[in-house]
Design a protein that fits this description.
The chain has 463 residues and is of the alpha/beta class. It has three domains: 147 residues, HUPs (Rossmann fold); 119 residues, Serine Threonine Protein Phosphatase 5, Tetratricopeptide repeat (Alpha Horseshoe), CATH 1.25.40; 147 residues, Orthogonal Bundle (DNA Cyclobutane Dipyrimidine Photolyase, subunit A, domain 3), CATH 1.10.579.10. Strand 2, helix 1 and strand 3 form a beta-alpha-beta unit. Pfam families: DNA_photolyase. Its cofactor is (6R)-5,10-methylene-5,6,7,8-tetrahydrofolate; FAD. It is an enzyme of class 4 (lyase).
Length: 463
């Protein structure tokens, strides 16, 4: 199928350069060689112009590293890039990777390019890159939005109040955007004379070893990065655990989660590809499919809407709605039944063994089930000296240990703990009218079985 016009935005409306040597694509958000609308657009244009395609990536390192990223995040990223390069090589597309910022490599390679193609992200740092590129590059620039199902500004022109306000807007557009993507044949294969990088991604472990970064949070064994692994996991999931998604999705011990979130975060799989596979799955009924699409489209794209339309989405005063801040402020001096330092929280040294287990799963394996993420966050609010302190702690722990931390979903989910996309509830100590979550929520699943699951997962990481 063709790339929908709604995904395509011309950022610098000038004709492609007649003396350009190639079409360059900044493969920064969508780290994959297949089912990638921006890449297919670049190939289509290169074929029309009689030119090869070069994909590029700027690897932030040292003092200029990606904010809050550590060895865990970079290991997964580099594994994915190594896999993407193999796919690009197979297709005859060049790849240039350098230790520099995404903006700098795009600006440099655009000097000899007929056309620059960008993908799209919604975080402030990504918008800064794109802004610098547009200000500096004189050739034609086209941005293709391929890591959401429905382009954010087409779905809504404003910050949405809650999932219930965005859902009908997305549902009206689902069928138009949940379509297959034809992979174009590359007519002019990359060869000699194209720009060269200074990073050999063939050995991602060696690249990681040569970087200056935080190594206190190590890589995990539970997840391997790359689009090949993402598709393998998705296929296995849809022929097995997915059959019980509708009934078991909120049971952490049941194994009904797909674990696609790290791969979506790093752009190693397309949400449209997932949606198509879910719709076509033989396992699972209509309720299972509807429930899964609610999570991967409505909830995920509500998060994209939030960070796109909120300046200061990582700050308590901007991210948390006024009614919730007021309610929490009115109870800021309430006595907390328990208080813990951030180190105690990180190490899982609280009185609550189930919370400690959830923290251990996150700390050791980079993942925590969504149902427990809500409980985990609400308890940090309850156990912190102030709501402002709790918000900052929750975000730091989230971004440090989760593989999918520093994501639009991360910022949005943390703000949800403090009242975002929610309404006032019955008043109580500490929380005011912000939603509370008690230990009773643990009765909805087999908490003791979950403890055993976490014990096994953590042991596997240490072996």
């Amino acid at each position: 199928m063709a790339i929908q016009a709604g995904r395509i935005t011309v950022l610098n409306d000038v004709p492609p350069r007649e003396d350009g040597a190639y079409v360059v694509y900044l493969l920064q958000q969508a780290n994959r060689a297949h089912f990638n609308p921006a890449l297919e657009y670049a190939v289509t244009e290169a074929n029309r112009l009689g030119l090869p395609v070069v994909a590029c990536f700027g690897l932030l390192d040292g003092a200029n590293g990606f904010p809050e990223a550590n060895a865990r995040h970079y290991a997964f990223l580099l594994q994915g890039l190594a896999d993407a390069k193999k796919g690009l090589d197979t297709r005859g597309i060049g790849f240039c990777m350098r230790k520099t910022s995404p903006a700098e490599i795009a600006i440099d390679l655009a000097r000899d390019a007929a056309l620059l193609v960008l993908d799209r992200g919604y975080l402030a740092i990504q918008k800064t890159w794109y802004g610098a590129i547009v200000a500096a590059v004189k050739t034609r620039i086209v941005q293709v939005e391929g890591d959401v199902v429905v382009p954010v500004e087409i779905a809504s022109a404003k910050h949405e109040f809650a999932a219930r306000t965005l859902r009908p807007k997305l549902h009206r557009l689902f069928d138009e955007y949940i379509e297959g993507l034809s992979e174009r044949t590359v007519k002019h294969r990359a060869g000699r004379g194209l720009p060269k990088g200074d990073v050999d991604i063939a050995d991602p472990d060696a690249v990681l070893a040569g970087m200056t970064l935080d190594r206190k949070v190590p890589p995990v064994k539970r997840f391997v990065g790359g689009e090949t692994e993402a598709r393998r996991r998705l296929k296995a999931y849809l022929t097995g655990p997915f059959a019980d998604y509708g009934t078991d999705r909120n049971k952490p011990e049941a194994g009904a989660a797909s674990h696609m979130s790290p791969y979506l975060h790093f752009g190693q799989i397309s949400p449209v590809e997932i949606a198509l596979a879910v719709r076509a799955a033989k396992a699972g009924g209509p309720e299972d499919k509807a429930a899964y699409l609610e999570e991967v489209i409505v909830r995920r794209e509500l998060a994209m809407n939030h960070v796109h339309y909120t300046q200061g989405y990582d700050a308590y005063a901007q991210a948390v709605p006024e009614w919730a801040r007021k309610a929490l402020a009115e109870h800021a001096d309430d006595r907390r039944p328990h208080t813990y330092t951030e180190d105690e929280l990180a190490e899982g040294r609280t009185h609550d063994r189930y919370w400690n287990a959830a923290q251990a799963e996150m700390r050791e394996t980079g993942y925590m089930h969504n149902h427990l993420r809500m409980y985990w966050g609400k308890k940090i609010l309850e156990w912190s000296p102030s709501p402002e302190d709790g918000f900052a702690r929750t975000l730091r722990l989230n971004n440090r240990y989760f593989l999918d931390g520093r994501d639009a979903n991360s910022f949005t989910n943390v703000a949800w703990v403090y009242g975002l996309h929610d309404r006032p509830w019955a008043r109580r100590k500490v929380f005011g009218t912000v939603r509370y979550q008690s230990e009773n929520s643990l009765r909805k699943f087999d908490a003791k079985a979950y403890l055993k699951t976490v014990e096994a997962l953590c042991a596997a990481e240490k072996n």
